[in-house]
Amino acid sequence: MLGLNKNDMRLLLIVAAMVALAPIILNPFPESSAMAQFNAGYPDLMQRFVIFGIFAIGFNILFGLTGYLSFGHAAFLGAGSYAGMWMLKLLSINVIPAIIFSTFIAGLISLAIGWISLRRSGIYFSILTLAFAQMAFSLAASVLTPITGGETGLQTNLNDPRVLPSFLGGGASDGGNIPKPSLFGMEMTASFKLPVAGWEWTFNWGYYVCGVIMLVAFYVAIRVFRSPFGLMLRAVKSNQQRMSYTGLNTRPYMLACFVISGMYAGLAGGLMAAMDPQVGAERMQWTASGEVVLMTILGGIGTLIGPVLGAGLIKYFENIFSKINSSLLHEWFAFLPDGLEDFIVAIIYPFIGKGWHLTLGLMFMAVIIFLPGGLVELGQRIARRFGKGRTANATGETKPAE
Q: Is 161 helix (H, G, I), strand (E, B) or coil?
């Protein structure tokens, strides 16, 4: 079905189920419950899950298949955001032209950067991509201020000279001077409530639009991984020098892979502009490039579903740990004696709130040391362990699985 084998089709259906159920699974306390104050599943956060999932999937096509580590993918993310914003300002507030144009522009920029950077490999390639990303950040923050808005950034305005203001339904404003991006006349930030299991849950229209796009991007990634082109990229990762000795020119394959990966980043940038119609140069900072590296490694390098899991984990934990403060900790441990309560809060507090990056760092170290394959490897270990237990029961063995 759809050109996929059973395993890949099953994986695609699993990701589709995750996207469909994420607003409930990742938002365990509905708004009508007393625990709603601890929610992490805000509508904008849910959109970021799938948008950064697209970003990580595209990065994994380059890093996972070829082993080339790029520290400059934030340049394509930012370029896609700026391109999408200009489409929202000049053509239509509808998000479709913005998404298409942002992907196209990111592809052109990645073609130019890849043409130069891929002349080197290893750490030299990584440093070149980082240098290009920092140059792009500097240009966006200062030199190209008339185009990028500098440090202030760009945002949509009702007075923007749009050529097709009513294209596919147009858009609406928030009551002020800022129109909201829309699709078929429905705002990307529009929410609707549905009763599920006796509780009232909030769902976001923009999230499901981004979720469908992520599923398409995930399907394309599967086809790339399973194609002869993907097999050639794996051969490059295995031994590029040996392939060159056979007379095969690997550079066109590497450049095509780099462009595809950059277009994924541009698509994510365009969706970010559609989600939040205000774009700044901070999306091009090296920290954004480092974040997608963390997502891919935490999820599982070279795996299909790993980058999606890594992106969701980082964004979800970022929201949870950054929201917990000292007062909330004291409220949780109020049942303990005062001295013990203060001691436990003093130990936990450095790892949450503003210090949540410390927890992320420790998690990253643990994955590198104990789970080189990331969350996917963890899932495989659990599956093998339970699989051994089932096999032992089926054969009548009484020895527990190791």
A: coil
